[in-house]
Amino acid sequence: MAQTAGRGDSIKHAFIGPAFLVVLVVTLFPLIYALVISFQAIRLVPPLPPRFVGFGNYAEILSSARFWGSMWTTSVIVFISVAFQYVIGFALALALHHNVAGASLYRVTFLLPMFLAPVCVALIARMVFHPYLGPVNDAMGMLGAGNIPFLTEPNLAIAVLITIEIWQWTPFVALLMLAGLQSLPGEVFEAAKVDNIPAWRRFRDITFPMLLPLSVAVVFIRLIEGFKVIDTVFVLTGGGPGTATETLTLFAYNEGFKKFNLGMTSALSFTFLIVVIVFGTLYLAAAQRVTRRYA
Question: Is the separation of the CB atoms in 272 and 200 below 8 Å?
Answer without folding.
Answer: no
